[in-house]
Amino acid sequence: IAKEVLRRKFVVGLMSDMAESLERFDRYFGWYDPTNVEAMQCKDQLTSKKGAVNSNKHARVEEGSPAWEGLARHNELDLELYDYVLELWEAQRHILEMQRDSSGSAQASDAVATE
Predict the structure, then answer these.
(1) 112 and 13 Cβ atoms separated by less than 8 Å
(2) CB 28 within 8 A of CB 106
(3) C-alpha distances in angstroms, 71 versus 33, 67, 100?
(4) How far, in Å, CA of 49 to CA of 19, rounded?
């Protein structure tokens, strides 16, 4: 059910690609306004190396370590959902580009659903 809800109701964004995520949100929701200096500065700050980080400090866990494997087992469904979000990210890229090219904006009546 979670995958279907994501597919039908969400424009997904990634912390690892904050700049493109914000651009997608701007265009999809009609928020893009290059004359809004304050919004553009805020976006620049969020997408800078300093701003585009998870503000919560976490201990580093080495991939493949027993701790890593335990976390992966405990969060197996979350990891599956994240992998799906990565697929959805790519699929939505193409859909949003097609919508923008055909209409000048990426807005749609419902969420960006992929087939």
Answers:
(1) no
(2) yes
(3) 42, 6, 40
(4) 11
Reduce the DSSP state of residue 5 to 3 states and report it. helix
Quote the CA–CA distance of 42 and 51 in Å, as a whole number: 10
The confidence score (pLDDT) of residue 107 equals 47
Confidence of residue 27 (pLDDT cuts 50, 70, 90): confident
Q: Are 2 and 82 in contact (CB under 8 A)?
A: no
- Cα–Cα distance for residue pair 30/46, rounded to 1 Å: 19
Question: pTM for the complete prediction?
Answer: 0.72
Average pLDDT, the chain: 83
